[in-house]
Amino acid sequence: MSDRREFRDLASPERAREVVENLSIDPEPETVPLSEARGRVLAERVDATLDVPGFDRASMDGYAVQASDTIGASEADPVELPVAGTVHAGEEPAVTVQEGTAAEISTGAVMPPGADAVVVVERTDETGNGVAVRTAVTPGENVMVAGADIAAGARALGPGTELTAREIGLLSALGVDAVPVRGRPRVGIISTGDELVRPGETVDSTVGEIYDVNSYTVAAGVEEAGGEPVVYPHAGDDFAEMERLLHEAADECDLVLSSGSTSASAVDVIYRVIEERGDLRLHGVAIKPGKPMLVGTIGDAAYVGLPGYPVSALTIFRTFVAPRLRSAAGLAEPRTATVTGTMAVRERSQEGRHRLVPVGLVETPAGETLVYPVDKGSGATTSLVEADGTVTADADTEYLAADERVTVTLFSPSVRPPTLLGVGEDDPTLSGLLDRLERPRYLPVGTREATRRLADGVPDVVVVSGPEAVPEDATVLGSWEREWGLVVAPEASVSGLADLVDGEATFVNRERGSGLRASFDGALDALAADRGEEPAAVRSAIDGYELTTKAHESPPRRVRSGAADAGLGLASTADKLDLSFRPLGTETVTVLANPDRTAKPSVEQLAELLGEGD
Asked: Per-residue pLDDT for 263 more than 70?
């Protein structure tokens, strides 16, 4: 009587996929050097611990000046300033720009003390007494302030981010030398069959020997899918040897893959090993090629038996196993290197120049891909991770029109649109919420810009704060309160706004357009009204009012470094940085949804998370 095991009740592909997906192969997170992090996936959020750039620097070649010295300068009536010295990139300034003087400066150089703006060299003329300035500049013009690229305390990269060359560049700029990443599943690979010979050895075709193909193709597939392949010695059809190798691999790996010995033949014994020593969950799947397939466990390791024919083995691996490996490693499913989409907004080009426009992708609930421009300047590292690819604009292209169909060349085949695109205020509570979403992208552009972009219909959600009214057509998902005020150095004698206005303390402000800045300006206006003074006079009395920084932690960190006596900030930031705090009020941070995206799953999930805090 034959002891053949027949394939009965073949599992559907959907059932086979479900069984494989339920295998436990997720490894523990690990920390790896930055040099070995490419292709890995972050296990935790990485926040910036320093400002990038770490100093105020010139963004153009020209002359560092005090902006007030250029008032009224024009082509017809230039202002002549003596040149006190020169500042080159990579060196500490040896000159101070006094009132009525200038310093020649190179792109990327540290702004010298006393200077608050740069006049581009094209708008100047050298003279016998110095330089003639043919244009007026404002404080901060042509200057990239510390933290303008990314600010200390800001959310740099979130958990689940795949680390490509772009992210490695950002981490390098932040000085990160080791990163916490998702573990790579360790996968043992065993090829079976008496007829197999390893490449490099001599094969005897007269007795039916063939080279072992599966060990190497499957190992390559494992590595491509984010796993760590371990190729074990070739095993024949001997039951005892097969059992020994399977248990050795199971003790050392998260997943064991074998190829061959999965058919119903009496000589194929591997299914017996699984039945007797482990748990056989599936034997056979209704797919061609690839019907012979085993799924189960051996001890604590998962097991999948692949067919012996190389095409069938690779088909089963790619169809069922590779997705589970990518999931365990935190990697996205691969996609084509290009994608077509619709421009969400109009983007001006530069006629006469061939241009690669950095763009981001966002999907509508209906699955339509929208394309929006991302351009923070060539010096901004974050542009690399905020964009998904490029759109080519030919030399004769004047602009990319809204609703125009475009082809996006992706930075890598694994790029996918973020599940959620948000813009607006930066906030520590928000960072925690974003950590609980899968692959969100958040651009901290401030309240004013967020409101504008909401009107354009690009983001899924916007986050606003301060006294500005919430747009009537927006859907409120939730909100929270945050206490704001002056973050003060321990030795500074600043107890409130009056001391800041009337005293000699130096101050660091937030950028225009942020809700926190609007709240602060409102408090100054109220103080001016109480005193019967003009708001402009009160603001100009503050030493550093025009010195603006990007993120909520930027002013407090300047205070902690000794660069200022006080800064605009949050109570939570003062507590985090061990600084004194002078409360000035509370403001509501509100999360608004694009009315057309309320049915998007990620928007619904964010609404649920916000509801948990009620």
From this structure: no
3-state secondary structure of 205: helix
At 379 the pLDDT is 47
Alpha-carbon distance of 530 to 510, in angstroms, equals 24
Tell me the CA end-to-end span of the chain in Å, nearest whole number: 70
Distances (CA, A) of 437 to 9, 318, 501, 593, 598: 39, 27, 43, 16, 16
Encode burial over 226-248: b for 16+ CB neighbours within 10 A, e otherwise: bbbbbbbebbebeeeebbebbbe
Taking CA atoms, 277 is separated from 247, 252, 271, 300, 598, in Å, by 9, 16, 10, 11, 51
How far is CA 586 from its chain centroid?
A: 30
Q: Which helix (H) or strand (E) holds 608?
A: helix 601-612
**CA–CA separation, 122 vs 102, rounded Å?**
15
Q: How many residues in total does the chain contain?
A: 614
Unique residue bearing structure tokens 């069938």: 312
CA quadruple 279, 284, 286, 287: dihedral, nearest 10: 110
Q: Which DSSP string corresponds to 450-467?
A: HHHHHHHT--SEEEEESS
Please say whether the beta carbons of 301 and 202 come within 8 A: no
Residue 347 burial class via C-beta count within 10 angstroms: exposed 0-12, middle 13-18, buried 19 and up: buried
How far is the C-alpha of 477 from the C-alpha of 464, rounded, in Å? 12
The whole-angstrom separation of Cα 494 and Cα 568 is: 12
**pLDDT (tens digit per residue) in 405-462:** 999 988 877 788 999 999 999 999 999 999 999 999 999 999 999 999 999 899 999 9
Residue written as token pair 């974050």 = 382
Whole-angstrom distance, CA of residue 300 vs CA of residue 279: 10
CB 587 within 8 A of CB 481: yes
> One-letter amino acid identity for 345?
V
Report d(CA 144, CA 51) in Å as an integer.
11
Confidence band, pLDDT 50/70/90 cuts, at residue 260: confident
For residue 49, give the amino acid letter: T
399 phi, psi to nearest 5 deg:
-160, 160
Report d(CA 212, CA 275) in Å as an integer: 26
Name every residue whose Cβ is closer than 8 Å to that of residue 576 and which is 6 or more positions away in sequence: 153, 553
Query: Among 76-90, 201-215, 269-283, where is mean pLDDT lowest?
Result: 201-215
CB 303 within 8 A of CB 250: yes
Q: Which residue has the higher pLDDT, 328 or 269?
A: 328
CB–CB of 332/410 below 8 Å?
no
Instruction: Provide the 8-state DSSP code for 82.
Output: -
- One DSSP character per residue, 10-46 reads PBPHHHHHHHHHTS--PPPPEEEEGGG-TT-BBSS-E
Q: How many angstroms separate the Cα of 6 from the Cα of each of 280, 284, 483? A: 15, 10, 71
Task: Report the DSSP pairing between strands 30-33 and 178-181.
Answer: antiparallel
Do the beta carbons of residue 570 and residue 483 sit within 8 Å? yes
The answer to whether residues 119 and 67 touch, using CB atoms and an 8 Å cutoff, is no
Question: CA dist 543 to 134, 427, 502, Å?
Answer: 27, 26, 10
Q: What is the CA radius of gyration of the chain?
A: 31
- Per-residue pLDDT of 111-150, as tens digits, reads 999 999 999 999 999 998 899 999 999 999 999 998 888 8
Tell me the C-alpha to C-alpha distance, in Å, between residue 146 and each of 156, 256, 376, 555: 16, 51, 15, 10
